[in-house]
Amino acid sequence: MYRSALSTFLVLLFSLPVLADELPRVDLTAGFYRIQAEVAARDPDRMQGLMHRRSMPANHGMLFVFAQAARHCMWMRNTLLPLSVAFLDEEGRILNIEDMQPQTEDNHCAAKAARYALEMNLGWFAGKGIKPGTRIGGIEQSPRPQ
To answer: SS3 for 48-108, per residue?
Structure first.
């Protein structure tokens, strides 16, 4: 029984990166900067987010697409990477940016009704001078929420 449970755990563990690779991707822009974003448009993908990832390449992120604009909140349970999240309105304009520390359950919420959230490595937005009011281009190419 122990061997069976261990085998199942290992299969699930090693399949995580493969599952992540199956998410749709979209090319976004923030000013002059290009972002390659995985898209979490389905409930299971939004719940999983970037959990259990040990690294994320520079200029890569995850775009969360919500079915409705609302004051959505994010947290960092089981997330190993420090991240910054930008909450975006219907047109892709940044409402606010929050920095998030790994493996915490603090709520980081949109300042107003947000339709999207874009997670990047910690400090990415600040390092590029990207601030609230900046429009993220390419949002319209993202898959519809399911």
So the answer is: HCCCCCCCCCCCEEEEEEEEEEECCEECCCCCCCCEEEEEECCCCEEEEEEEECCCCCCCE
Strand, coil or helix: what is 38?
strand
Owner of token pair 């389905």: 42
Query: 127 is written with which tokens?
Result: 């390092």
| CA torsion through residues 63, 75, 108, 104, sign | negative
User: What's the predicted TM-score (pTM) here?
Assistant: 0.84
Tokens standing for residue 53: 């990832």
pLDDT digits (tens, 9 = 90+) for 29-50: 999 999 999 999 999 989 899 9
3-state secondary structure of 116: strand
Distances, alpha carbon 85 to alpha carbons 6, 26, 42, in Å: 35, 17, 18
Q: What is the pLDDT of residues 92-146, one digit of tens each?
A: 999 999 999 999 999 999 999 999 999 999 999 999 999 999 999 999 999 999 8
Q: Which residue is it, tokens 């999240």?
A: 85
Smallest CA-to-CA distance from 130 within 43, 49, 61 is with 61
